[in-house]
Design a protein that fits this description.
- There is one protein chain.
- By secondary structure, the protein is an all-alpha fold.
- It folds into 2 domains: 29-66; 67-120.
- The chain is built from 3 helices and no strands.
- It has helices at residues 26-29, 32-62, 69-119.
- It is elongated, with a radius of gyration of 46 Å.
């Protein structure tokens, strides 16, 4: 019987990885009490900053928005002025109709005069 011998080349060897100096992480250097105090301080600051924003967002979602009294008064004043503008608009429309009617009456009275002047 025949025997086949296959020769496989050796894989190339990688260069050695250089040893870098170990830089310790902050939690490896500081005592656990300091880390705990920093964590609590960050959480407290975040709570103080975000608490009013979250309350306002919650009120808006619930629909319980407390309106400023001055703003409410200004809205009421604007509504009253709008009602006045609507009344004035109605009066202007009536006046326009009266002016149109008067112009038509005057035009009817002048036409016979024009005809007589043209005949002469």
């Amino acid at each position: 019987m025949w025997q086949v011998v296959v020769q496989v080349p050796e894989p190339p060897t990688l260069p050695p990885i250089p040893d870098f100096p170990h830089t310790p992480a902050p939690w490896e250097v500081m005592p656990p009490a300091v880390i705990l105090l920093i964590t609590l301080a960050v959480l407290a600051a975040g709570t103080i900053v975000l608490w009013p924003l979250m309350r306002a967002l919650g009120r808006r979602i619930e629909g319980k928005v407390v309106a400023d009294p001055a703003l409410r008064q200004e809205v009421e004043d604007l509504r009253a002025r709008l009602a006045e503008v609507d009344q004035l608009q109605h009066r202007v429309m009536e006046l326009e109709e009266r002016v149109d009617f008067t112009e038509r009456l005057l035009a009817q009275q002048r036409e016979p005069e024009r005809l007589r002047q043209g005949e002469v």
